[in-house]
Design brief:
By secondary structure, this protein is an alpha+beta fold. 26% of the residues lie in helices and 38% in strands. The protein has one domain: Thiol Ester Dehydrase, Chain A. Strands 1-3-4-5-2 form a five-stranded antiparallel β-sheet. Strand 4 (112-120) and strand 5 (126-136) form a beta hairpin. The N and C termini lie close together (10 Å).
Length: 138
C-alpha cells in the first residue's frame, strides 16, 4: 500500500512505452461518440490541416490518468483528485508513445503530491503535458 511517507520529490513515474494504433484511436473515438474525421480518417484529418488521424484529447487524458493510477495502485490508499493537461502538439497514432512523470511537490498537512506528467513521441518531443494531484489516506 502506497502511503504519503513513500513519496519523495523527484521520484519518477514511468517511463511507460505504449504503441497506440489507428484502429485503437478509431474505436475509442467511435465508442466515445466522437466520429469527427480527425479521429477516424487520414484524408479527412488532412482536409482539416492535420498530418493525419490524431488521438482525441480525452484519450490522451485517459492514458496519462492510467500512468498516475497505476503508480498509486489498486489498494485504495490514495486517489488522484485532479489532472490538468495542455495539448501542445497533436498526438498521432501508429507510434510508440512514452508516458512519464515526476513528483514536484508534497504537502504533508494535506497528504498530497503534485506530479508533472507528459506524453512524448519517439523523438522525445512532449506532446501533452500536465499536472496531477494525488491525495493519500495515510
Amino acid at each position: 500500500m502506497k502511503t504519503f511517507a513513500d513519496v519523495h520529490i523527484g521520484d519518477t513515474l514511468g517511463p511507460v512505452h505504449q504503441f497506440v494504433s489507428k484502429d485503437q484511436c478509431r474505436k475509442y473515438a467511435n465508442s466515445a461518440g466522437l466520429p469527427a474525421a480527425r479521429f477516424t480518417d487520414d484524408e479527412g484529418a488532412r482536409k482539416e490541416g492535420l498530418p493525419g488521424i490524431i488521438l482525441p484529447g480525452n484519450m490522451s487524458l485517459g492514458l496519462l490518468s492510467k500512468l498516475v493510477t497505476d503508480w498509486i495502485g489498486a489498494d485504495g490508499g490514495a486517489r488522484m483528485i485532479r489532472l490538468s493537461t495542455t495539448y501542445r502538439v497533436p498526438v498521432q497514432p501508429d507510434h510508440t508513445l512514452t508516458f512519464q512523470g515526476f513528483i514536484t511537490h508534497a504537502t504533508e498537512a494535506e497528504r498530497t503530491a503534485e506530479i508533472d506528467v507528459w506524453i512524448e513521441n519517439e523523438e522525445a518531443e512532449r506532446l501533452v503535458t500536465g499536472t496531477a494531484t494525488v491525495q493519500f489516506d495515510k
